[in-house]
Structures are given as structure tokens and as C-alpha cells.
Amino acid sequence: MTNPLRLGVNIDHVATIRNARGGDHPDPVRAAEIVARVGGDGITAHLREDRRHIRDDDLRRIQEATDLPLNLEMAATEEMLEIALAHKPHAACIVPEKREERTTEGGLDAAGQHNTLAPIVWKLKDNGIRVSLFIEADERQLDAALKLGVPVVEFHTGEYAHAHLDGDGDKLARELKRISDMAALAAKNGIEPHAGHGLTYENVQPIAAIPQIAELNIGHYLVGEAVFVGLESAVRHMRELMDEAR
């Protein structure tokens, strides 16, 4: 039997549009409610240190508005740890974060930051929060995740997405194999592999077809498509493509 594939929808950029004008429209909570209604499996939100999109109070309102599990993307800082412990989301995905970047540019260096990450991972796990690391599909980083004892890793698919956009068939094949191989290795070692970043209607199916991957987190593309077809239609179509691939 084929393993089910979950869709987590990142609603950050609904908040980005809201914050461009101030006020409270469009409300990311309304987006979360739509995702719940049309078959999304979870809500992902990245509370950045500069609060450029999701704001602190959004987390509470999202949790109150829907029963879908909340996956909080967070930097490995004491401030974000305190916020995570206060809100107790279903999951916390630790991501790299730089003020000057437009979006997350790559995976977390879990191997090089073990001593920083270990106490944060321990405190999150001790409070019943499922911890994930957003890493490159790389054996060294996966080994670091194993040593840190996290139950989940999310593989950064940005290079795969760039190769698809550039029409670089050789690189696309290499990136897909790299992600597939590391997903198999993660599952073999008891870690649940997820994937995300830059996934679109056009490139999602080869990633979705990797049998060990349990969840895809997709946001910017779906919010962009929602401008033209509505969020409900965008999420439904992505769900259909993912299901076809399985």
C-alpha cells in the first residue's frame, strides 16, 4: 500500500500582503480556515525575527480557528524558543534565518550548529512539540539530525526547483536522486522525511512520487496562484497533483 502524502500549506505570504498596507486584510487566519475546509493536512507559519509576515498574535488566532496541526517555522534563538513553548504548536521546524534574505536560501547547518541546536531541540521535545530540521538532502546533515534525535527532517528542494526552472535536465536528475536517496536513508534510520521550497504545479510530482516522503510544505506558489484562481482552487489542484503522483 502506498504511504499517504500530507500537504502542509504555508500561509506566510497572505500575511505579507496584509502587512504591505497595514491593517488586518487579507487575514492569514481566513487562509488557514480555507485550507482546513478543502483538505489541507496542516498549516505552516514562519514567525521571523523581524515579523515581516506572520505576527505573534497570528499564531494564537490560527490555533483557535482551526484544528489542523500548526507547524511553526522558527530560528534557533531563545526568543523563538520561548514563543514556541508558550504556544505549543504541533510541530516546530528549525530553519536558518538571515535578516537580509528575501526567503530561506538553503538548509540549516545542523552539523555545524550541534551545540546551539541541542538544548533547543531538547526543550521543544520535552514540551511535547514534534521537532523538525530544515536541511539540505545531504548525508552529513542527516547524520547530524540523527545525533540530535529529531523525529523529522524537511529537505530543502530549492536547488531542484531552480534546475526545473532553468531547464537543466542533468542537474534536475541529480537533485531528484539526491533527495530520493536521502529520503530513503532518513526513513531507514527512523526519521520521517518531509520536503519543501519552490514547489509548483509543474515540478511537484517527481518529489511527491518519492515513496518515503510523508509531507510537502508549499506556500508562496499557492498564495501566488490564489491571486488568479482563489486559494481553495489552488490548494485543491495541488492536492490532486500530489495524489496522482502517489
Automatic annotation (TrEMBL):
It is an enzyme of class 2 (transferase). 1-deoxy-D-xylulose 5-phosphate binds at residues 12-13, 48, 53, 103. The record marks 154 as: Transition state stabilizer. It comes from the Bacteria. The keyword Ribosomal protein does not apply. GO terms for molecular function: pyridoxine 5'-phosphate synthase activity. GO terms for biological process: pyridoxine biosynthetic process. The keyword DNA-binding does not apply. GO terms for cellular component: cytosol. Homooctamer; tetramer of dimers. This is Pyridoxine 5'-phosphate synthase. It comes from Qipengyuania aquimaris. The gene is pdxJ.
